[in-house]
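wait is this the right file?? whatever heres the structure
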């Protein structure tokens, strides 16, 4: 049976070892739940291949993101972004067939009774393998580093907007706005924009359901604002930039991805950055995205335990979920901030701040787990989301597993 004929494709998104290179963004979610553009990786695939979905992920996440196995399962590597060519290849998969890139599996049709043996080294011996490593006709885009998220926005935002709005009409745009360029400005139901300038020369502008773009905002596409997002007055947004749902953004933002439920409401610069969920960027917080000597930026690696060369000239801030900055915070080029971090104080904090850190340039103490959970519970409830027991268990695991990076604890 071809996938095209299947009424209910059972899709399993699996995390490969690259999840470690995507920390701290993947401490609290499977890779497929990362948002790159308007949609998460999971949502991108489900627009193209209809079906039910679940995950193979790390043990501490499986309590919230369990696997669902059926007789016939379509496995998709969570780092893989859907392009036209790779989607067509996946559509053609038959049972006991796999698509590989060298020794890495990108997708496979696997009977449910075999899944328990998938970690065995000879598992794919009986599969028909299509190795596309040297196939120049297949465009492969994978998210295997945190900075890939903002790097790929120029492709992902237009493709997401096209796929998500196909066959639908935008709300009419108020005549108080000015539009430059040939790409569309798409407004979902309940979206409001007045007295703004949209430059769509380089890509579309998407304003989600019940989102608002306040007067005086200047936005250059490609840009996508998720449902309920508010773009504050006089914001200056340079594409490619996107937010998830229920964000508040303002000031100056360039080539950045804000995952969702996070606020950067005030003046200050954010560039070539990825911000997790439930973050709050204080007024006049700024990050550098270019070194004064113009050399490639180095970024902290959780895998090697040191700073590694990204090869990028522009690379700003990577911030995990539930982290916050005080007013007038400054970040150096290529800074990595963990989860549940509170940054404050005069000067630049160091370029790597581990999870549950409380402080700044003058030093850090540990943000107690109970206090972190208490604050997170309040913040989430303000958006109408109740913290689950699974969330608490994941946060507790995170506190324990990241203690090795909090060097000050070893000295006390």
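ok assuming it is, sequence goes like this
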């Amino acid at each position: 049976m071809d996938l095209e004929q299947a009424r209910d494709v059972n899709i399993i998104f699996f995390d490969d070892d690259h999840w470690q290179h995507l920390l701290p963004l993947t401490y609290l979610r499977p890779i497929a739940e990362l948002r790159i553009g308007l949609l998460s990786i999971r949502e991108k695939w489900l627009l193209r291949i209809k079906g039910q979905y679940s995950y193979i992920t790390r043990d501490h996440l499986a309590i919230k993101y369990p696997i669902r196995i059926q007789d016939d399962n379509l496995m998709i590597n969570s780092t893989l972004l859907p392009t036209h060519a790779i989607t067509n290849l996946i559509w053609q998969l038959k049972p006991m067939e796999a698509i590989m890139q060298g020794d890495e599996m990108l997708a496979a049709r696997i009977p449910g009774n075999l899944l328990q043996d998938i970690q065995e080294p000879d598992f794919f011996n009986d599969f028909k393998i299509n190795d596309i490593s040297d196939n120049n006709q297949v465009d492969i885009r994978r998210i295997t580093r945190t900075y890939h998220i903002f790097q790929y926005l120029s492709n992902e935002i237009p493709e997401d907007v096209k796929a998500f709005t196909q066959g639908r009409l935008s709300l009419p745009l108020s005549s108080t706005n000015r539009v430059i360029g040939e790409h569309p400005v798409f407004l979902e139901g309940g979206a409001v924009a007045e007295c703004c300038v949209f430059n769509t020369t380089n890509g579309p502008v998407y304003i989600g359901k019940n989102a608002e773009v306040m007067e005086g905002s200047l936005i250059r596409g490609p840009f996508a604002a998720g449902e309920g997002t508010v773009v504050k007055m006089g914001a200056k947004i340079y594409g490619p930039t996107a937010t998830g749902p229920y964000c508040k953004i303002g000031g100056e933002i360039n080539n950045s991805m804000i995952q969702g439920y996070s606020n950067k409401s005030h003046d200050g610069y954010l560039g070539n950055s990825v911000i997790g969920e439930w973050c709050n960027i204080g007024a006049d917080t700024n990050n550098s995205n270019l070194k004064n000597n113009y050399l490639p930026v180095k970024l902290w690696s959780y895998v090697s335990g040191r700073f590694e060369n990204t090869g990028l000239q522009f690379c700003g801030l990577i911030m995990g979920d539930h982290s916050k900055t005080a007013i007038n915070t400054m970040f150096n080029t290529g800074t990595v901030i963990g989860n549940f971090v509170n940054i404050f104080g005069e000067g630049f904090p160091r370029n790597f701040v581990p999870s549950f850190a409380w402080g700044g340039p003058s030093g850090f103490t540990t943000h107690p787990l109970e206090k972190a959970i208490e604050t997170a519970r309040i913040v989430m409830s303000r958006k109408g989301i109740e913290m689950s027991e699974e969330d608490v268990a994941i946060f507790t695991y995170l506190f324990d597993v990241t203690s090795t990076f909090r060097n000050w604890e070893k000295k006390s």
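The chain has two domains: 3-144, 149-411. so i think its the right one actually
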